[in-house]
Amino acid sequence: MDRKISLIIPVYNSSQFLHKTVKAVDDQKKESNWDLELILIEDGSPDNSFEVIEKLAEEYHYIKGIKLSRNFGHQIAVRTGLSYATGDYIAIIDDDLQDPPSLLPRFFEQLDQGYEVAYGIRKKRKEDRLKKIAYVSFYRFLNMISDTKIPLDSGDFCVMTKNVKDKMLTLHEQNPYLRGIRAWVGFKQIGLEYERSGRIEGESGYSLKKLIKIAKDGIFSFSSLPLQIISLLGNTGLLISILFTLFTIFRYFNNEIEVAGYTTIIILMMFFSSVLLISLGIIGEYIYRIYNEVRNRPHTIIEKTIN
């Protein structure tokens, strides 16, 4: 291939097996004759992942190493990698070989044929049943409510042209949902099905808290449904209030008003208090995100780089 390739891999707690990932990349580089730069972004790992990157960079001179000053999160780490990429074609894979480098030539062929983005569609996932159900449900829910059509069962694994990468980087969101941004920028895109492998070693760095954050970033960044829910709750509450008022007036004129009514009042107070708190929580989430944008802090702090 006569085009320069930038391969971005975010690294977290991968010191025990990162050499296997880089070896798989190097094997594919030789087989496909890539002009490659491999960008490894160490996202504040508690282990010695960056020391491993430094040693690997001595052996594989096309490696660029980036150490973040703390754990900023997977999406921010990938975005940082995009900002360092100089290739004509850019690819994003994970460090655990669940999206192996051997798949990339088939994806790059789509760019050669005129597509600007080729993204992976996970046909099968080697994860526990509960996680599979959660992922499938979330992707379909997000696709249903999103203002932008985000492909089902697609993750960050993809290849893109430099043009798309540059356009994605013009969006300076503090909480980026990259697969949504990739869909939002448009251009000619195609999805390719593949069977996702299991991790080569270790446990996923995605805790439940991190998964919930990514889900929230997707929902609040690409859908107005939460705000519409507030309107729906408000209209529902108004309808209930009108009906209850008419019911009370009817009972008043029929001399049916009793001193009793404690239960009804408590139920109504609890209902409307819950609606109010839910609404404030949703509005608060948007306000927090606006505040994050207004502060205009840098996405990351770079502690150290190699090459």
Automatic annotation (TrEMBL):
Q: Which GO terms describe its cellular component?
A: plasma membrane
Origin, by domain of life? Bacteria
**GO molecular-function terms, A-Z:** glycosyltransferase activity
Enumerate the transmembrane spans: 229-253, 265-288
Arranged from A to Z, the UniProt key words for this protein are: Glycosyltransferase, Membrane, Transferase, Transmembrane, Transmembrane helix
A Pfam family (short name) is Glycos_transf_2
Checking InterPro entries in the record gives:
Glyco_trans_2-like, Glycosyltransferase_2, Nucleotide-diphossugar_trans
**Domain Glycosyltransferase 2-like as annotated: residue spans:** 6-163
Protein name in the entry: Dolichol-phosphate mannosyltransferase
The organism named in the record is: Chryseobacterium wanjuense
What is this organism's lineage?
Answer: Bacteria, Pseudomonadati, Bacteroidota, Flavobacteriia, Flavobacteriales
